From TrEMBL:
This is Porphobilinogen deaminase. Tetrapolymerization of the monopyrrole PBG into the hydroxymethylbilane pre-uroporphyrinogen in several discrete steps. It catalyses: 4 porphobilinogen + H2O = hydroxymethylbilane + 4 NH4(+). The porphobilinogen subunits are added to the dipyrromethane group. It is an enzyme of class 2 (transferase). Residues 223-303 form the Porphobilinogen deaminase C-terminal domain. It comes from Haloechinothrix salitolerans. Monomer. The keyword Transferase applies. Keywords: Porphyrin biosynthesis, Transferase. Residues 5-208 form the Porphobilinogen deaminase N-terminal domain. SUPFAM superfamilies: Periplasmic binding protein-like II, Porphobilinogen deaminase (hydroxymethylbilane synthase), C-terminal domain.
Length: 315
């Protein structure tokens, strides 16, 4: 393509870091690109994410894409609402970073080493429910702000620890401050955590092909599709207490050849009659090509176990 492709991004350090990796990959194909920073209401508000709602970070980018101000938008996949956006297509899902959550605690402490009563900051109902369910007597308090702001609260002694996505810390070069990478058995990440969605206009076929050929990863796309199908079927928003993780595992086919399969786990938090939080869990395996139905079936299993379908953000 002779025209320069404009790639839109949010202005946070995290967003700029992840967009520049995508821009570099597209440039390596010989295509000229330009990075355009778009300010979003999610960046300007300090209200809890559970109040300002799903899509705060992504809708301004999508508007810029639809209006033609930019040609490509790079999103953190887990921040995208589960409903598809008319006229837009996710043309590329690059290989995902480590999807796990990570603890950054004072004095290098791990979860098991934090004394009961320690205060952990997170704005995520999913992380809060799973932290409480560990039975370690940890207190959970809501926080917001970018990665730097959250981590400073630990350095300043305001909190004993915070939980963040390991992928975000990798992208801003702060992996060395993690005091424990949390095993998914203890905390399942948000659906699509650690993955990016590279979006363009559905009628912009040349750009769609360019992105598909430069950044798309089939295994990541299948994994993320299964995880997001769990969320969509539970009709939950990005701040709902739902975790899902699909690992791509190797299996032996009947003829002895090695095939890749998805191993999907899901968790949903529910409130018991006494007001305590209960975690419901389900797991399933299936073929990459059946990612969507695998996710939906797992969600149905969670619903059968008693997961409610939350009606809005923060439920
Ligand atoms: N909701 C905020 C958000 N959206 C994307 C990331 C970075 C990790 C990722 O891309 O999944 C984060 C920060 C976090 O959860 O710690």
């Amino acid at each position: 393509m002779t025209k320069t492709i404009r790639i839109g991004t949010r202005g946070s350090g995290l967003a700029l870091a992840q967009t520049s990796t995508i821009a570099e990959r597209i440039e390596r194909s010989g295509q000229r690109v330009e990075i355009v920073t778009i300010s979003t209401p999610g960046d300007r508000s300090s209200a809890p994410i559970t109040e300002i709602g799903v899509g705060v970070f992504t809708s301004a980018l999508r508007e810029a894409l639809t209006s033609g101000e930019i040609d490509v938008a790079v999103h953190s996949y887990k921040d995208l609402p589960t409903t598809p956006e008319p006229g837009l297509v996710i043309a590329g899902v690059p290989e995902r970073e480590d999807p796990r959550d990570a603890l950054i605690a004072r004095d290098g402490l791990s979860l098991g080493e934090l004394p009961p009563g320690s205060v952990i900051g997170t704005g995520s109902p999913r992380r809060a429910a799973q932290l409480r369910a560990l039975g370690l007597g940890l207190e959970v308090t809501g926080i917001r702000g970018n990665i730097d702001t959250r981590m400073r609260k630990v350095a300043d002694g305001e909190l004993d620890g915070v939980v963040l996505a390991r992928a975000g810390l990798a992208r801003v070069g702060r992996l060395d401050e993690i005091t424990e990478t949390i095993d998914p058995i203890q905390m399942l990440p948000a659906p699509a955590q650690g993955a990016l969605a590279v979006e363009c206009r559905a009628d912009d076929v040349d750009v769609e092909h360019l992105i598909a050929s430069t950044v798309d990863n089939k295994a990541t796309r299948a994994a993320v599709t299964a995880e997001r199908a769990v969320l969509a079927r539970l009709e939950a928003g990005c701040s709902a207490p739902v975790g899902a993780l699909a690992d791509v595992v190797e299996d032996l086919a009947d003829d002895g050849s090695v095939v890749e399969r998805l191993s999907l786990r899901g968790v949903a938090a529910t409130e018991t009659e006494s007001g305590a939080v209960d975690l419901l869990r389900a797991s399933a395996t299936g073929e990459l090509a059946d990612a969507e139905s695998l996710g939906r079936e797992l969600a149905v299993e969670l619903l059968d176990l008693g997961a409610s379908a939350p009606s809005g953000p923060g439920a």
